[in-house]
Amino acid sequence: MKEKIARFMYGRYGLDKLGYAILITSMILTLVTSIFGGDGNYLSMLLLIWECYRFFSKNIYKRSQENSKFCGITKSIKKKLGLMKNQLRDRKTHRYFDCTTCRNTLRVPKGKGEIKVTCPVCKTVTITKT
Ligand SMILES: [Zn+2]
Predict the structure, then answer these.
(1) Is the pLDDT of residue 39 over 90?
(2) Domain count, the chain
(3) Which of 89, 93, 91, 87 lies closest to 109, judged by CA?
(4) N or C: which end of the chain has fewer CB within 10 A?
């Protein structure tokens, strides 16, 4: 039996981060629908069918492209959330602002008066009040 399953799964894509995200979203949708009611079960079923299609797909290149797109999106969201968390943590001691040339986020200490800040990425010098 185990060999049959292994033979069946040979060359098929399987589960990845996008797959886990689809499954978790489907489960949350089912849970929310069972508590509050509504038509979320149809969407949940569609998500499960989509994940089954991806799981058993033999087009590994296309599935991994979808996953890398998803990972790129989640990485940028995680980066923005991390920056927001740091800004909240340092709100009393530091000030954050964007570089005027490259849009890189810079952090300077508060209460130092007018200071000259050099961007570590593009080396642009900005004079700012902290
Ligand atoms: Zn810069």
Answers:
(1) no
(2) 2
(3) 93
(4) N
Same domain, 105 and 46: no
CA nearest 55: which of 92, 12, 17, 2? 12
Residue 43 contacts residue 29 (beta carbons within 8 Å):
yes
Ligand 1 centroid, distance to 31 Cα (angstroms): 46
| pTM reported for the whole predicted model | 0.70
**Average of pLDDT values for 26-52?**
90
The DSSP symbol for 112 reads S
Q: Which residue has the tokens 């040339």?
A: 101
Ion ligand 1 residue ranges (Cβ < 5 Å): 99, 101-102, 104, 119, 121-122, 124
Question: How far does residue 104's CA lie from ligand 1's centre (Å)?
Answer: 5
